[in-house]
């Protein structure tokens, strides 16, 4: 995930300060080392693989490569100011690996040119000085190593990072579609790096693999982290129509990594090629400090790109500029992916800073489980008016979302999904935009929600509790403002399908709360709830004020029965409705399917189904439980009973069976179907009756409602 372009340098404070001191100290050490061998051209070159010739002069060195790949071992490799090292290669896909065996770091202060790609590996460190000018088809500068065999075969697996650092203070330019990769334990760019429609990658780790993907862009993965891994950009990185990656991974969960950006990273769209920028820290212990400028916009046409800033801790500095604006196309998205996130003082971003980014960019804040709780807190007011097309603030929490300060969107949408509770403790207002609140357990509305010319969906796997004013005026079908939600107001409980009965969750309207006000046109109101008994439906109508043609539909939730005997598959056929509601039946259309979430025996197991509908004279009084975050699917719960035949397909290894005899199974399995016990040298073996044919479950074609991306979290408990 990567891409870049840049144009501005800032001197924001870095956190932690030790990280900045470390990179500056390493740079200083390099300068001291270079002082002993300044202006030195490459020396001691020996061709170890492939074919190449080396010609030296007082002003430079020329390497003429005659094979597609070549390996040259050097005692030292440097380029002094005013000097030139040139690679003449068979074509732009040719690669020359230059490995330094001596003890000196490499100092590139002059010109380095190549019509193909150049790899420079020096475990002692590499510095591109402020006067350096590099123009190549592609460049890898690294303190890691690679074997000749892997290199010659095109397997770019780098290992064993040296103690040196890689620093660029000069100007590095790759040809269109080319790449620049700076790799080591500590990597810093303070100069300019460009790779139009290509890739720029700064990566810190002890083992890194590179390959070129089907889109022609460089893919890079860190398979082993490094102690105190550090990546920073304080200069300019530009990869319009391409990808920029800054990534650092730790060697263990107790050691920290840091990714800092205080410079400019630009990956603007070129034609149909969107730019992308990835700042990726360690998700267990990493810290990311985001400042400067991140630009994946489309100022000259096309759609905006994608920006990701992910680490265990992500800190967004005041004054940061992040944009995916697309005046003539679709807006892009900025994903912030930490363990926990606080919007407010002392947190991860201020409300003012977040509000400023939402003017031109949709922002998605997604937390994951880890050493934190996976919570999101809105403790600062967030207020924005989109400059062009509506933008969306999306909060996706592994656990809770607590809205403790006002959220106000004009020409904007607000979407919240979480694995447990949503607590609305401050007002939410959307004008010409929609609001989604989807809780994995309970949704507690304790402050006013007002939506004008938009839709509102409030849903929870358990209860939806309404304790404050709720106002909707005119719904919308505009895809940029509707969030793909049902028209008007919808309130749904028990979206995880654990009913019937109020224990599964229902809609609770506080009698002290103001009446829910819905004004049309285009403003149908719908409540989906669990009654205490199907024989006594709830009546929420007295709690509503409906004007302008607004209507209210009240539906009781019904749940298909799902029971099967264990057979090693997840598929099941739904046959009737739990609780025997009157005047309604379950109808399976052609192609219908239902699957358990796992094939293990158990009760109250989640079942996801599609292609079923309700029929009968009272069908309009009922509805099926439907999820509201992520893929829109119907849900119920069911049972998989143990089989009378032992089936060990789901068990591995089988060592736990050693020493058991047939009487041990007598109380659990049908007589006559027990495995035969055969004794051999004191070990017990079993002959197992297996199924003759396994029935593969039919996949359900999940399709997320535009413009959502299904949140990837494991709800605790997994309900919504």
Characterize the quaternary organization of these chains. single chain
Radius of gyration over C-alpha positions, nearest whole angstrom: 31 Å
Categorize the overall geometry. elongated
- Percent in helix: under 10%
Strands, total number: 62
Give start-end ranges of low-pLDDT stretches: 1-39, 645-720
What is the mean predicted local confidence, pLDDT? 87
Overall SS class: mainly beta
Count of DSSP H/I helices: 3
**Strand composition percent:** 35-45%
Specify the biggest β-sheet. Answer: 20 strands, mixed
| Terminal CA distance | 29 Å
Question: What would your notes on this structure say?
Answer:
The protein is mostly beta strands. The chain has a 20-stranded mixed β-sheet. The chain has an eleven-stranded mixed β-sheet with strand order 2-3-5-8-11-15-18-23-26-29-32, with no helix packed on it. Strands 7-10-14-17-22-25-28-31 form an eight-stranded parallel β-sheet, with helices on one face. It is elongated and about 95 Å long. The two termini are 29 Å apart. The relative contact order is 0.06.
């Amino acid at each position: 995930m990567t891409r870049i372009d840049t144009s501005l340098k800032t001197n924001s404070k870095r956190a932690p300060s030790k990280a900045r001191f470390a990179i500056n100290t390493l740079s200083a050490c390099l300068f001291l080392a270079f002082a002993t061998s300044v202006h030195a051209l490459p020396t001691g070159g020996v061709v170890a693989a492939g074919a190449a010739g080396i010609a030296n002069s007082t002003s430079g060195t020329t390497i003429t490569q005659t094979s597609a790949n070549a390996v040259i071992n050097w005692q030292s490799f440097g380029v002094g100011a005013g000097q030139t090292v040139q690679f003449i290669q068979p074509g732009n896909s040719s690669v020359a690996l230059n490995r330094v065996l001596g003890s000196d770091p490499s100092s590139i202060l002059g010109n380095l040119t190549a019509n193909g790609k150049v790899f420079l590996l020096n475990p002692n460190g590499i510095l591109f000085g402020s006067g350096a000018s590099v123009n190549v088809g592609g460049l890898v500068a690294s303190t890691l190593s690679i074997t000749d065999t892997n290199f010659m075969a095109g397997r770019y697996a780098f290992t064993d990072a040296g103690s040196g650092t890689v620093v660029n203070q000069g100007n590095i330019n790759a040809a269109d579609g080319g790449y620049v990769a700076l790799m080591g334990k500590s990597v810093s760019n303070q100069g300019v790096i460009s790779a139009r429609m290509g890739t720029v990658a700064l990566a810190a780790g002890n083992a890194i693999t590179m390959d070129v993907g089907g889109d022609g862009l460089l893919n890079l993965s860190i398979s082993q982290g490094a102690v105190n891994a550090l990546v920073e950009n304080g200069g300019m990185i530009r990869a319009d129509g391409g990808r920029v990656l800054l990534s650092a991974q730790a060697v263990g969960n107790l050691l920290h990594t840091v990714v800092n950006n205080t410079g400019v990273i630009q990956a603007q769209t070129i034609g149909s090629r969107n730019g992308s920028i990835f700042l990726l820290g360690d998700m267990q212990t990493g810290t990311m400090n985001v400042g400067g400028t991140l630009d994946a916009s489309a100022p000259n046409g096309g759609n905006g790109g994608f920006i990701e800033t992910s680490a265990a801790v992500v800190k967004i500095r005041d004054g940061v500029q992040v944009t995916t604006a697309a005046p003539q196309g679709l807006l892009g998205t900025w994903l912030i992916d930490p363990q926990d996130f606080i919007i407010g003082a002392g947190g991860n971003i201020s409300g003012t800073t977040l509000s400023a980014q939402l003017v031109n960019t949709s922002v998605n804040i997604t937390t994951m489980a880890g050493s934190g709780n996976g919570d999101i807190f809105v403790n600062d007011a967030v207020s924005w008016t989109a400059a062009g097309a509506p933008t969306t603030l999306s909060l996706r929490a592994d656990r809770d979302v607590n809205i403790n300060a006002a959220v106000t969107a004009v020409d904007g949408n607000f979407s919240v999904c979480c694995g447990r509770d949503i607590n609305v403790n401050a007002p939410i207002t959307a004008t010409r935009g929609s609001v989604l609140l989807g809780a994995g357990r309970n949704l507690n509305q304790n402050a006013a929600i007002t939506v004008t010319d938009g839709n509102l969906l409030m849903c929870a796997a358990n209860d939806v509790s309404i304790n404050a004013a709720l106002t909707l005026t005119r719904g919308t079908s505009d895809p940029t403002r509707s969030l793909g939600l049902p028209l008007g107001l919808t309130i749904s409980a028990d979206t995880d399908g654990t009913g019937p009965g109020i224990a599964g969750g229902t809609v609770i309207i506080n009698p002290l709360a103001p009446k829910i006000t819905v004004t049309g046109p285009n403003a149908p109101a719908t409540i989906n709830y669990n009654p205490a008994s199907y024989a006594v439906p709830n009546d929420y109508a007295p709690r509503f004020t409906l004007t302008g043609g607004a209507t209210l539909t009240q539906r009781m939730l019904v749940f298909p029965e799902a029971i099967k005997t264990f057979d090693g598959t997840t598929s099941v056929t739904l046959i009737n409705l739990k609780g025997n509601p009157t005047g309604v039946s379950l109808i399976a259309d052609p192609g219908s399917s239902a699957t358990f979430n796992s094939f293990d025996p158990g009760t109250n197991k989640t079942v996801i189904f599609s292609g079923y509908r309700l029929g009968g004279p009272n069908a309009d009084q009922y509805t099926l439980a439907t999820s509201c975050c992520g893929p829109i699917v119907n849900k119920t719960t069911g049972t998989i009973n143990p089989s009378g035949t032992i089936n060990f397909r789901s068990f591995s290894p089988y060592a736990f069976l050693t020493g058991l005899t047939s009487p041990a199974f007598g109380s659990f399995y049908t007589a006559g179907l027990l495995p035969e016990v055969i004794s051999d040298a004191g070990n017990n073996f079993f002959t197992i009756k297996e199924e003759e044919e396994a029935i593969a479950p039919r996949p359900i074609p999940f399709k997320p409602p535009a413009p959502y991306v299904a949140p990837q979290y494991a709800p605790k408990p997994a309900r919504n």
